[in-house]
Design a protein that fits this description.
The chain has about 180 residues and is of the alpha+beta class. It has helices at about 1-20, 25-40, 40-50, 55-65, 70-85, 90-105, 120-135, 165-175, and strands at about 105-115, 135-145, 150-155, 160. Helix content is about 60%, strand content about 15%. The protein has a four-stranded mixed β-sheet with strand order 2-1-3-4, with helices on both faces.
Length: about 180
């Protein structure tokens, strides 16, 4: 829990600076690029997050890789993360920044879990229905989990809508035991 609050403070600070300078989308795109290049690859991740290389050496590497590509706000943010030894929290920081940006845009992020991949048309229709209910645009991250047997589980914020066959069977079993 403490790590999330620390990551949240870093993400919020970057978001506020980006918002004050009308750069929220650009900064998010650059953070996505950083995550895709530095955090997705295990050896690059080890270079950034590992303790084998000093913070000044990592900052020099970042400058060489992204100096002419990333906005100075992003480079300063990454330097601060390195200076404070918070590299292990960078993914949480990026996720929280993205959540803040989505909130600003009026988008409600949700996770849609189905037993089988859902067609785009069905996911869009479900998203539109939920958008009417919540009064915000719902954006799904789709996941597949065969263990739910059928139906869907939707997580939106702190709410869970469990319409899975597995949950239905569990509820039926509970009722039969009574």
């Amino acid at each position: 829990m403490r790590e999330n609050s620390v990551a949240g403070r870093y993400a919020l600070a970057l978001f506020e600076v980006a918002e004050a300078n009308a750069l929220t989308k650009e900064i998010e795109q650059q953070l996505d690029t950083f995550a895709a290049q530095m955090l997705a690859d295990s050896s690059a991740r080890h270079l950034f997050c590992g303790r084998d290389i000093s913070a000044p050496a990592k900052k020099q590497m970042l400058g060489e890789l992204y100096g002419g590509v990333f906005h100075p706000f992003v480079l300063n943010f990454l330097s601060l993360v390195l200076d404070k030894g918070r590299e292990g929290m960078i993914e949480a920081m990026i996720d929280i920044y993205k959540q803040l940006h989505q909130q600003k845009l009026g988008v409600l992020p949700a996770v849609l879990t189905t037993a089988h991949p859902l067609s785009d048309d069905r996911a869009d229709a479900l998203g539109q229905s939920l958008s009417r209910v919540f009064g915000k645009t719902v954006s799904f991250e789709r996941r597949v989990n065969a263990g739910i047997i059928g139906g869907a589980i939707i997580n939106i914020g702190d709410k869970t809508i469990d319409g899975s066959v597995k949950a239905g069977l569990r509820n039926l079993r509970r009722e039969l035991i009574k």
